Amino acid sequence: MSKEIIKIFDTTLRDGEQSPGASMNTEEKIQIAIQLEKLGVDIIEAGFAAASPGDFDAIEKIAQRVTKSTVCSLARATDGDVKAAGEAIAKAEMKRIHTFIATSKIHMEHKLKMSPDEVIKRAIRAVSYAKEFVDDVEFSCEDAGRSDIGFLKEISDAVIEAGASTINLPDTVGFRLPSEIGEMVKVMSEYTKDRAIISVHNHNDLGLGVANSLEAVVNGARQVECTINGLGERAGNAALEEIVMALKVRGDVFGDYETNINTKEIYPASRLIANITSIEPQPNKAIVGKNAFAHESGIHQDGMLKNRETYEIMSPESIGLVKDDTLVLGKHSGRAAFKDKLAKLGFTLEDDALNASFERFKILADKKKDIYDDDLRALVTNEMTKSEQVYELVSLQLMDFSEGTPSSVVKIRKDGETIVEAGIGEGTIDAIFKTIDRISGFDGKLQSYKVKAVTEGKDALASVTVKVSFSDDEPAIIGHGLHIDTMLASARAYIGALNSYLSMKGKLKKRFSDSSKTV
Ligand code: KIV
Ligand code: ZN
């Protein structure tokens, strides 16, 4: 008997980006979309087109790059949102508009201040209008988990009639238990039958997002919405990697279902997103945490040596984690070996990006004896997601670390010209950032600064992430910098944020006052 396909709808770029501190620039979003396509997700929710010109721009670019997955934009149930969504995805090979309105009593009364009848009218209008742009329309009953089942049936009838082919039932606040989600999905899938696909979208406030999604599948859901690393609003969304691997590893229970996911792309996807957002999955996170395949106790190690299955229910290779190959290239490694290694790590680079990454690798290999997989992942991700280099750091000189006033001399290239400035600050980082401000003429406000060692050793690469606000009425921008020297990594991160800001200038402002946070 052929298995039923469970569609994987990835919302890392939309709900995931709503995680505090997870905002991404356009280049970063494009690289993530390319990886999601490689992973085999059926639908990529690329963003929320009406939120800001920057969001629109990123969705539009993703729509032109991705061909094997459906590209989707979220839209509230308003003409303006639906139009923006339709225009942003217009060039996609396969496209979907995902429109939503809240259906729970508490949301309708207190947030929308609308009667159930008005909500149904708005939903019908949004779906009918979306059909003018695309064939494939998904409708979400926001806060379905706390909505009246009779009302869910009524609004579903109405939007299916208007042309929606997927009905999504989000547990927006992560309140429901698996048995309750299972019951809701069973009732709704038996009710809608083959008129629509029932989808779920579970938030993780009680840590039940994945369990709820699996229970939904068993009860008739044929689409699951999720994010890589479980990123998302508040406690996040159900984690894609956990749902997919549970379905696969527990084939004895879920044998009737399969997904289109190439599980070997899970680990590369997880690392890419962790590197871009600087949000590391917790070490003991299922599937992709640093310790997920580490065996510490002697008894476990002994068992593993005798038979891996004593303590491993899936292999690291099955998620694309090549474990026995962590120590990699050195300064004598050539371009071919470098390219080959990157391919093993899941990166396929075009010539220009490959050359630029190889140059950076060579510089690093001169300073650092052992270059590990994680060093390469960080370096290549950093190279591939750079915005246009308006300002480029040439050199940095620091003085007076211990006593007196820290000062810095920064040399920067802009439009072929070299600019040198000196500045002082309360601390070294302050001095560097203030000097860069003097050169650029901006007065950046540093909102957060994070530094981590990418791998081990005193010569480890420092990865610095800064969040800087360059203007009072636009959101803060993230910048990343990598270098063996933490101060140089910091300068690069700050300049990275500045370049990103300049590439997005004028496109950052949210179009509505309640920000892009929709739920
Ligand atoms: O959690 C939620 O309800 C959502 C909808 C917009 C689908 O993210
Ligand atoms: Zn959500």
Automatic annotation (TrEMBL):
One GO CC term on file: cytoplasm
Pathway named in the protein's UniProt entry: Amino-acid biosynthesis; L-leucine biosynthesis; L-leucine from 3-methyl-2-oxobutanoate: step 1/4
Ranges of residues in domain Pyruvate carboxyltransferase: 6-267
EC number: 2.3.3.13
GO BP annotation list: L-leucine biosynthetic process
InterPro entries: 2-IPM_HCS-like, 2-isopropylmalate_synth_dimer, AIPM/Hcit_synth_CS, Aldolase_TIM, LeuA/HCS_post-cat, LeuA_allosteric_dom_sf, LeuA_bact_synth, PYR_CT
Keyword Flavoprotein: no
Keywords per UniProt: Acyltransferase, Amino-acid biosynthesis, Branched-chain amino acid biosynthesis, Cytoplasm, Leucine biosynthesis, Manganese, Metal-binding, Transferase
Family annotation (NCBIfam families): leuA_bact, PRK00915.1-3
Family annotation (PANTHER family): 2-ISOPROPYLMALATE SYNTHASE 1, CHLOROPLASTIC-RELATED (PTHR10277:SF9), HOMOCITRATE SYNTHASE-RELATED (PTHR10277)
Name the UniProt record assigns to this protein: 2-isopropylmalate synthase
